Amino acid sequence: METDDYFTMRAAAAPTEAGRYVDGAAMDSVEVLPGLGIRPVVSERMMVNFVSFAPHTEAPMHVHEEEQIAIVVEGDLEVDLDGDVRTLHDGELAIIPAWVPHGMRTHETACREMDIFSPPRRALLQRLEAASAGTPSQMSSGGGVEHGAEKPPSEALP
Hints:
This protein is mainly beta. It has helices at 3-6, 122-132, and strands at residues 30-33, 36-42, 47-53, 58-62, 67-75, 77-81, 84-88, 93-96, 102-105, 111-118. A 6-stranded antiparallel beta sheet has the order 1-2-3-10-5-8, with no helix packed on it. Strands 4-9-6-7 form a 4-stranded antiparallel beta sheet, with no helix packed on it. The longest helix has 11 residues, at 122-132.
């Protein structure tokens, strides 16, 4: 691949929205299950969740139509991909295609990981909207989804 091809300025269409900066660390965490907190950032076609697992926390086996990549940032995370169970460590990841049964859990230590979904995880967006509207759900915080409020360039993250 030529460098010119990778860093091209030839757009095939007009942008659908403006670029923006988000301070993920400043976002409130939303508790999905006891010990499992997320800070979701959503764009038009992607979602990134900054996820915190307390020790001895489990995201039970489930499936969804969205593709997912789970990246361990800090700690250890046991991942079950349709019966293939492995413990992932810092920097390791799991690629989870649509409809593949999967679950995750921590044991003695906490874990921080990032989940990337494409398209954005519809069921999670619905639960976040219900939580922010005051509808009872398993989420205990007031919503917390960040659609990427713009910051002036002077406040941009490095």
